[in-house]
Amino acid sequence: MGIGWPGVGGSRDNRCGGGGMSGRPSEGWCVVATPKKDRSGVGGWGERDVKFSVVGEVGSQVANAVRDKIMEKEAKKEAFRKYLESSGVLDALTKVLVSLYEQNEKPSSAVEFVQQKLGGPSLAEYEKLQAEISDLQIRYNELLAVHQEKCREYEEFKRTDVEASSCKETVERNEGL
């Protein structure tokens, strides 16, 4: 397969951009897709079967940026893998999956099996806990409304008590005259 230069066209497997009137690769960029050949010499067009080449000065910069982004993602994946390993998650999951593999009669729900082995609630227990949370939230809201009403009553009582004591002081002063 040939290389498609900017401004010159190219096959549908080549994506080109930039470039000047001359169409030279140094003025723009061009990505060339080439099928990789397997051991039998047969080429494929699957995602992992294609080799991409970037041609041109700008193309090299794009390729470097893409490579850096890929390396950054790979570093994040590796850091996360190390985190899972150091926290014991990988060992726990491995033990559970080995246990599932060794079961003579496979459970009807592999997810529930894994949850149970990791100490989580079953689906029925989870639904029961969710219903209990919902009931408790309703009860909390009811008690909060009662509390707020009692606070309003208390504030009203304090205000009327202050007014009554103020009136009592005024009457006592007037009687003393």
From TrEMBL:
GO-annotated cellular components: nucleus
Which residue ranges does the record annotate as region Disordered?
Answer: 1-28
Keyword vocabulary terms for this entry: Nucleus
Q: Name one GO molecular function term.
A: transcription coactivator activity
Localization: Nucleus
Q: Where is the composition biased (Gly residues)?
A: 1-22
Q: What is its main location?
A: nucleus
The family this protein is said to belong to: Belongs to the AMY1 family.
What is the name listed in the Swiss-Prot or TrEMBL entry for this protein?
A: c-Myc-binding protein
